[in-house]
Design goal:
Radius of gyration: 34 Å
Number of strands: 48
Shape: globular
Helix content: 10-25%
Distance between the termini: 33 Å
Strand content: 25-35%
Length: 995
């Protein structure tokens, strides 16, 4: 079904709702599957109408579609079962057990046995885990909260939970416009025409009973079919113009075009009398449906005395419902990958989880909210013996391996990785920070240039393309399903998509060809040339209705366009790219789209933004510098975060105000809070009683083993089916304090009452600890001693501490690099015992900045190397990172205030004491100086200082400047001359096209 047909369904839903056809509304919602009415669903759940609840759900998902769907159906059937037991209706409970719950025994037999055993209890509340089960009403309410969370997290419900914004009676308005239009085409239009039917086109009867003669309308005045609106029936993508190659029948399910005609047509020669207002209560006439919109249309259609030539009217310029502030332009953080970043992709539902692929073959999972690496997997060949002799020979000659593409599956359960030599890897992701190997496939001869997931016939598949000029489709067992031949050059990128039930793949090759394929063996259905005729990628908008492509020519020129699918032609060409010197090719432009209205591309060391409906560039940003010539970029699915690659083997996260708020929220919650709502308090059970999974108050079914009746591969289930287990997740219920028990102060008087761990002693032990910090990742503890030396302790993963987090149950290790260096601060002439120390960590734990009365020092947390800064000689009194960790604000005892770059502590701005203090204060005795500094939690360039005389001042740059100075220039690809991290493949990676 086309997008217009889908919109027509929404118009009908609105009409039915306005006419109070309530049952029909929900029936259409369920049958179309376009809109899930969460309010109606809530009503039926709270009323316990379980048959209707499942019937309504069936229009959107089935039990075995994915793990979220399984949980939804299990929760509903579990509640129905417990209610039958609560009413002592054993016969009904047995019926529910056999007909509804037995399906879950396929996933876990032990669970089904435990549920069955509840039948043996007189009151299931005798079970300890179900002892807090309340009445039916409260149990349903608690379950409903969980169901709504599951529905919102389920990708099958994405974009189906919000009804589109429509003007009232929109369908009536469109009918009214059509009738008025038909009336304009009447040969003898009559005032107040009587409309008796909508089944046929309207014509006015001739006066005095005269015989009606056919209306002869000049060709120029006849509306052109499809002139403004595409047909309301299904239509194939890339319908070519008549002169192009024929696409007839390439999508066999596509229907023929309808005869709906454009409203932008010429007027009839007959004027319309103004007196047409007739009440709808009397009779249905044209004006009964009239609205302000239709009145405007009538004005357009009325003749103006210039004959009956065809009239065309410019479409109104679309007014965006968003502003430039919605663009993610603020640098929230900068993270170091350690090797050149070649590909990135955000998780489809965890919007701060970023998958990163590197030039050294390593994949990394970053939790952006924590600035923490959750998982890091170096490249490794899983089964060399299964690889071809050609691949083994290639690896023997050159063992280096880079990544061309990383991507998530639509449900976020799998990660796909395409390498520069032959292989793809599939990893299963298990929240919060675990992965396991699923499949290794030698997919192509040469490099695998792209990888994507698709669902032909509702079965998850992997699509790949490569240097061997082929596109291949693989099932989840690693078996090849299709191999598409037809490109004459290496295939550069693929774009699987679907239009309702029609699944297809677009592909681009290095000779600039675009082809389209159905999942059959009939060959390519289209053959077009991409602008630039070289490296091109294609993307659909989030709602799947608009197709874009972006690429670079061999001359180095970049092209970003929107395609007209119905004609196979370019609809828009976006401007704003720089003209490159002939023959100079420095890389390939990358682009992405977000929120259905934003386009972004990386070029000329900048990120450039467009509104999809405007070909002129909106704005461009440098993201505080440090971007390569063609930076790679990727939006998260909400469009409020944008990951951008940097020249120093890392990436930056740009955010808008919503993105900054979501990232700040992470700082207020422990690590466990970042797990999914269904993982937060997991209790892993394997072979143990699982009755806890039944309680509507405290438990629910979560990770059911995926050995469904469809029999998916055991590889997807984590290997051996014998090791199946269930995560039982207790629900968190608010427990009211026992009013009968008086409040008592907890007093700890001996070691048996709590846990304590003492840090191991070190040779450079100080007389006292003057500053103490946990690392932001929660795995280390940093202490600054009165002797100006910093010590670091780290907790490692072990059997006693599998999470590797800080805990008092395990004593950490004193950490020091092999070089034996210590982090010793410069003290100058000051006595460290008497100076005011300060210490601050970067949010990614890569650097620590500190001072003990002397110069400000920056230490690398891995090497302990010290970078002294001598720009300001006075002792430092206090310092703080800006809210985005990009700047350091420092105050000095001589009255100076300094703004440094956080990455290298180079001075960006010095604020003299004369700029903010009076001459009296400057010359006072004792001298007045800024004693403390505090950074604004949301504005990265605003801070406040507290002076030694008790006064407080707030400082920020001029509004015209917007920031404190500029960063030092990039020299030889390294900011400010600092040496960046290197890897074995860094040089090779810089020459490789980033993906």
């Amino acid at each position: 079904m086309s997008s217009l047909s889908r919109e027509l369904v929404f118009l009908i839903l609105q009409f039915l709702d306005e006419e109070k056809f309530k049952e029909t509304v929900h029936k259409l919602e369920q049958e179309s599957g376009f809109y899930f009415n969460i309010k109606y669903f809530e009503e039926k759940v709270l009323a316990g109408e379980w048959d209707e609840v499942e019937r309504y759900l069936s229009g959107f998902t089935k039990v075995d579609d994915n793990r979220y769907s399984m949980k939804i159906f299990f929760e509903i059937r579990k509640q129905k079962y417990l209610e039958a037991l609560d009413k002592h209706d054993r016969a009904k409970a047995v019926d529910i057990l056999v007909k509804d719950l037995k399906v879950f025994s396929t996933f876990n037999e032990e669970l089904f046995k435990e549920i069955t055993q509840l039948l043996t209890l007189e009151n299931f509340r005798e079970n300890e885990q179900l002892s807090k089960y309340g009445d039916t009403k409260s149990a349903r309410s608690i379950m409903l909260i969980e169901l709504k969370k599951l529905i919102e997290a389920n990708p099958l419900f994405r974009e189906k939970l919000v009804f589109p914004t429509l003007k009232a009676s929109r369908l009536r308005t469109l009918i009214n416009q059509s009738l008025n239009w038909q009336h304009q085409l009447c040969k003898n239009p009559r005032p107040n025409p009587d409309i008796k039917t909508l089944f046929t086109d309207h014509t006015c009867s001739p006066p005095n009973g005269a015989r009606t003669s056919p209306v002869s309308v000049p060709l120029a005045a006849v509306p052109k079919a499809g002139a403004a609106y595409p047909p309301l029936v299904g239509h194939p993508p890339f319908q070519p113009p008549p002169a192009g190659p024929s696409l007839a029948g390439w999508m066999t399910n596509a229907a023929v075009s309808s005869s709906i005609q454009s409203a932008g047509v010429a007027a009839s020669s007959m004027p319309v009398p103004p007196n047409q207002a007739v009440s709808m209560m009397k009779r249905p006439t044209i004006t009964d449906y009239q609205s302000a919109e239709s009145e405007q249309l009538i004005k357009r259609l009325r003749p103006s005395g210039h004959g009956i030539d065809e009239a065309t009217y410019p479409a109104p310029i679309p007014q965006p419902s968003w502003s430039l502030d919605d663009l993610p332009k603020t640098v929230a953080c900068t993270l170091s990958q350690g090797s050149n970043v070649t590909s990135m992709d955000f998780h489809p539902s965890r919007h701060t989880l970023l998958l990163v692929g590197s030039a050294n073959g390593e994949i990394t999972l970053w939790e952006i909210g924590l600035r923490e690496r959750l998982v890091s997997k170096p490249f490794k060949i899983w089964d060399m013996q299964a690889c071809s002799p050609q691949f083994q020979s290639a690896v023997a000659k050159d063992s280096s391996m880079s990544i061309n593409r990383v991507t998530w599956s639509p449900d976020g359960d799998l990660m796909g990785v395409a390498f520069t030599k032959h292989l793809i890897h599939l990893h299963a992701y298990q929240q919060p920070n675990e992965t396991r190997q699923v499949l290794e496939i030698e997919a192509h001869s040469g490099g695998v240039n792209d990888i994507a997931f698709s669902r032909p016939n509702k079965q998850l598949c992997v699509v790949t393309c490569g240097d061997d000029k082929l596109i291949k489709v693989w099932d989840m067992h690693g078996q090849k399903i299709f191999s598409f031949e037809g490109h004459d050059a290496p295939v550069y990128s693929i774009c699987p998509h679907h239009k309702e039930t029609i699944q297809f793949i677009f592909s681009t090759s290095l000779d600039g060809k675009i082809k389209a394929w159905l999942y059959d063996n009939m060959g390519s259905r289209v053959d077009y040339e991409a602008p630039g005729k070289w490296c091109t990628t294609m993307l659909y908008s989030a709602d799947g209705t608009r197709l874009f492509s972006c690429g670079t020519s061999k001359d180095g020129d970049s092209h970003l366009v929107e395609w007209n699918e119905s004609e196979g032609s370019i609809k828009r060409t976006y401007s704003g790219f720089c003209k490159k010197p002939s023959g100079v090719v420095q890389g390939v432009v990358q682009f992405d789209t977000a929120q259905n209205h934003i386009l972004a591309a990386g070029e000329d060391n900048q990120i450039k933004f467009w509104d999809v409906d405007n070909t002129n560039m909106l704005t461009c940003i440098e993201a505080d510098g440090g971007l390569p010539g063609f930076p790679g970029l990727r939006f998260n699915k909400e469009g409020n975060l944008l990951a951008v690659t940097t020249v120093d083997n890392g990436f930056k996260i740009l955010a808008n105000s919503d993105g900054l708020r979501s990232l700040r929220a992470f700082g207020n919650r422990p690590f466990e809070a970042f797990r999914s709502p269904y993982e937060a308090s997991a209790m892993k059970v394997s072979g143990a009683p699982v009755v806890a999974g039944i309680s509507p108050n405290i438990g629910r079914m979560d990770h059911l083993d995926r050995n469904s009746p469809a029999k998916p591969s055991p590889m997807l289930n984590g290997g051996d089916p014998a090791s199946r287990s269930i995560d039982i997740k207790p629900r968190i219920s608010e427990e009211k304090p026992d009013k009968a028990k008086p409040w008592e102060l907890m007093e700890v008087l001996n070691p048996q009452q709590f846990r304590v761990a003492t840090m191991p002693e070190t040779p450079d032990q100080a007389t006292k600890v003057v500053r103490l910090l946990y690392t932001n990742s929660g795995v280390g503890l940093l202490a600054l001693g009165s002797n100006a030396i910093q010590r670091l302790w780290k907790w490692n993963r072990s059997e006693q501490n599998p999470s590797g987090k800080a805990t008092a149950s395990v004593v950490p290790q004193h950490w020091q690099p092999n070089s034996g260096l210590v982090m010793a601060n410069d003290t100058g002439e000051a006595n460290p015992e008497e100076s005011v120390p300060c210490i601050a960590l970067s949010k990614n734990d890569s650097y620590v900045m500190s001072a003990c009365g002397g110069k400000v020092s920056l230490f690398n947390m891995m090497t302990f190397k010290w970078i002294p800064q001598g720009t300001l000689s006075a002792p430092i009194s206090h310092a703080s990172y800006s809210c985005n960790s990009q700047l350091v604000f420092a105050t000095f005892t001589d009255g100076n205030v300094a703004v440094f770059d956080a990455d290298n502590l180079r001075l960006r701005c010095r604020i003299a004491s004369s700029a903010y203090m009076s001459s009296t204060a400057i010359n006072s005795n004792p001298a007045i100086y800024p004693y403390v500094v505090a950074a604004h939690p949301q504005e990265p360039n605003q801070f406040a200082v507290g002076l030694s005389d008790g006064s407080v001042k707030v400082m920020e740059p001029l509004e015209s400047a917007g920031k404190w100075g500029t960063p030092a220039p990039v020299e030889n690809g390294v900011a400010n001359g600092r040496t960046s991290a290197s890897s074995a493949t860094s040089n090779q990676a810089m020459d490789q096209n980033q993906r």
